[in-house]
Write a structure and sequence with these properties.
Layout: E1 2-5, E2 8-11, H1 22-26, E3 29-37, E4 40-41, H2 44-57, H3 66-79, E5 86-93, E6 110-117, H4 122-127, E7 129-135, H5 150-161, E8 166-171, E9 174-178, E10 182-187, E11 190-193, H6 204-215, E12 220-221, E13 235-240, E14 244-251, E15 254-255, H7 263-276
Parallel strand pairs: 7-8, 7-14, 11-12
Antiparallel strand pairs: 1-2, 1-6, 3-4, 3-5, 5-6, 8-9, 10-11, 10-13, 13-14, 14-15
This protein binds N-(5'-phosphopyridoxyl)-D-alanine.
Length: 277
Amino acid sequence: STILTQSEFVDKDSLSYPFEERGLQFGDGIYEVIRIYKGEYYLLTEHVDRLYRSAEAIKIKIPYNKEKMTDLLHQLMKKNNMENDGKVYMQITRGSAPRDHIFPQEVTPNIYAYLQDLPRNEKILENGVKTISQRDVRWENCYIKSLNLLPNVLAKQTAKENNCYEAILHRDGVVTECSSSNIYLVKDGKVYTHPATNNILHGCVRMAVERFLKEENIPLIEEAFHIEDIQHADEMFLSSSTSEVLPVIQLDNVVIGNGEPGEITRTLQKAYEQDAK
Ligand code: PDD
């Protein structure tokens, strides 16, 4: 398959990096995952905006503007004749240079993007998933979509080892988000989620959920909830580009509501499907 590197298109197998690459040695870079439905990017503008915000936050200068970036991503889709459901993974690092914590003087960012098929997971979208709670041990700049994913990887692995789909993260009991998704609690017809501070990634699907809730006249309360609040929840769901709007039916030993995906969750799933078409 064809991948985008810098602003060129090459065969996937022809790309290689020197071992002194700052993404590899320091996690000194950022990334995006954008969902694709039938060969069309979903929430592309939101993702490209966040890519540039993340780059700016870690002082990487992307060598072209958002319009050019968007155009390159569209070209990538065309060159691969992509017509399936899938995702694009895109990564930008500070570049390749002899190892030194300090930014190298002369360095250009390494950029690549490639497509992968990703069918929708109808079964879990229908039935919901179980989750496990974990301490959020990440740093204080989680709004940056940084390559440093070790805490997220370890949390997700622990979830997997406990037959769970996701880890719900909390700082001193205050729920922030999940290892690779945002999390919501429904109580008495209102939806609660952590405010978009530096402690969470501002999800693009989270932005879409905000819009759907407004359209449905369902109040969104951007106030953090406590892990203890979950036992009184009517419904819970999570959101991300790969998971969409996904019902959460259990946390640790606590069954959420009646143990089945709730009504507001279903409404949002329908809104998502309409929007993504
Ligand atoms: N993860 N929070 C974290 C920590 C994430 O890694 C993600 C996305 C989200 C949801 O963001 P969005 O709605 O923009 O996809 C929230 C991607 C999918 C990943 O790392 O694979």
